[in-house]
C-alpha cells in the first residue's frame, strides 16, 4: 500500500525513482480506506532530506499512511525556505486539535546545548505533553529521544569525550519484543552524536525498558515505555547510505580532523564506497512499529483516542 503525502512534495519524485509506492492527496481521497495518520515534527535544518529518509521507510509497508509535517514556530529553520514550509508544513497550533495514530520526533543539531537553552524547548515540551493524550504511539529519534527521556522522565544526557560516529553492532536486551520481531541476534545501526544517556539513569525509572544496546561506546540504543507506547531510539536507522560520508567530508573540509566512521568504509579507507549494513534493519524497525504499536492497537475511530481523558 502507498504512503499519502502532500501534492508536489519534492521527496515524492525521489521515492518514485526508488520504486517506493507514493500517492498524492487527490488520489488518496478516492479510496475508501481508513489510513493511519502520522504526525512528523521535523527538527532537522534541511527538511527534505529527513522527509525522504522517513517517508522511504513509512512507505514500504502494506498500510496506507497519511502524513502531516510540522515545524516549530518559536524557531524558524534557516536552511529551508519559508515558502517550502508554508506549502508543505503546518505548525503545532494548526494540528493541536487533531488526534494521530503515531508521531515521529526527529533529531536536531542542538545536542551540545542544555535542553532549556534550546530556542524551541518550551514549544517542544508542550508538544510532548500534548502527545500523551493525542497520539497513540510516539517514536523519538536521536536528540528527539534524549529530549523525550528528559522531559517525560528527567533522564539527563552527558557529553562524550569523542563523537560517537559510525555503524555499530547491536544486540537485543529483551526477548520476544514486537518492535524487534524478525531481527537477527546482531544487527548494525548508524550513530552520529556527541552526547549519550547512561544505562543506570534509565534503570532507575520503573516504567522504562531497555530494548537494545550497541557494542563499544555507542551505549543504549532503544528504550521504551511499552505501556504508553513511547519509543526512544538513539541511533539513525533511517540514514541514507552516504549520510555519514557527507558528515565526514564536511568536517574534514572544515579542518576539524574528524575520526573515520566506524564499520563504514572498507578497510577504513574514505576513498572507498561505504558498506550499507542497516537498510533491512531500518525497514523492519519502522514496519514493526507501525504494525504492532500503531495499526494493530489504535482505535478505528481516531476521535475516540483517549476520549475518557478528554471527558
UniProtKB/TrEMBL annotation:
Keyword rRNA-binding: no
A GO MF label: homoserine O-succinyltransferase activity
Annotated pathway: Amino-acid biosynthesis; L-methionine biosynthesis via de novo pathway; O-acetyl-L-homoserine from L-homoserine: step 1/1
Amino-acid positions noted as binding substrate in the UniProt annotation, renumbered to this chain: 163, 192, 250
Catalysed reaction, written as an equation: L-homoserine + acetyl-CoA = O-acetyl-L-homoserine + CoA
Classification via InterPro entries: Class_I_gatase-like (IPR029062), HST_MetA (IPR005697), MetA_family (IPR033752)
Family, as annotated: Belongs to the MetA family.
Protein name, as recorded: Homoserine O-acetyltransferase
Protein species of origin: Mitsuokella multacida DSM 20544
Gene: metA
Amino acid at each position: 500500500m502507498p504512503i499519502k503525502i502532500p501534492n508536489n512534495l519534492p521527496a515524492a519524485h525521489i521515492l518514485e525513482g526508488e520504486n517506493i509506492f507514493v500517492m498524492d492527496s487527490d488520489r488518496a481521497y478516492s479510496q475508501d480506506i481508513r489510513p493511519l495518520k502520522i504526525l512528523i515534527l521535523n527538527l532537522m535544518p534541511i527538511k527534505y532530506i529527513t522527509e525522504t529518509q522517513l517517508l522511504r521507510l513509512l512507505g514500504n509497508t502494506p498500510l496506507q499512511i497519511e502524513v502531516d509535517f510540522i515545524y516549530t514556530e518559536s524557531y524558524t529553520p534557516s536552511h529551508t525556505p519559508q515558502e517550502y514550509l508554508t506549502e508543505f508544513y503546518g505548525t503545532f497550533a494548526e494540528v493541536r486539535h487533531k488526534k494521530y495514530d503515531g508521531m515521529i520526533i526527529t533529531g536536531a543539531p542542538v545536542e551540545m546545548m542544555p535542553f532549556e537553552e534550546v530556542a524551541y524547548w518550551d514549544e517542544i515540551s508542550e508538544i510532548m505533553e500534548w502527545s500523551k493524550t493525542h497520539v497513540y504511539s510516539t517514536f523519538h529519534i536521536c536528540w528527539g529521544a534524549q529530549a523525550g527521556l528528559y522531559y517525560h522522565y528527567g533522564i539527563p544526557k552527558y557529553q562524550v569525550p569523542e563523537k560517537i560516529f559510525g555503524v555499530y553492532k547491536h544486540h537485543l536486551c529483551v526477548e520476544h519484543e514486537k518492535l524487534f520481531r524478525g531481527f537477527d541476534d546482531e544487527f548494525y545501526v548508524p550513530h552520529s552524536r556527541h552526547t549519550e544517556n547512561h544505562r543506570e539513569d534509565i534503570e532507575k525509572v520503573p516504567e522504562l525498558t531497555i530494548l537494545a544496546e550497541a557494542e563499544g561506546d555507542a551505549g543504549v540504543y532503544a528504550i521504551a515505555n511499552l505501556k504508553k507506547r513511547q519509543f526512544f531510539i538513539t541511533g539513525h536507522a533511517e540514514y541514507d547510505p552516504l549520510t555519514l560520508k557527507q558528515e565526514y567530508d564536511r568536517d574534514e573540509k572544515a579542518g576539524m580532523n574528524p575520526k573515520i566512521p566506524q564499520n563504514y568504509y572498507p578497510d577504513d579507507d574514505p576513498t572507498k564506497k561505504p558498506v550499507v549494513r542497516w537498510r533491512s534493519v531500518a525497514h523492519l524497525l519502522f514496519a514493526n512499529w507501525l504494525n504492532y504499536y500503531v495499526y494493530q492497537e489504535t482505535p478505528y475511530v481516531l476521535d475516540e483516542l483517549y476520549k475518557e481523558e478528554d471527558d
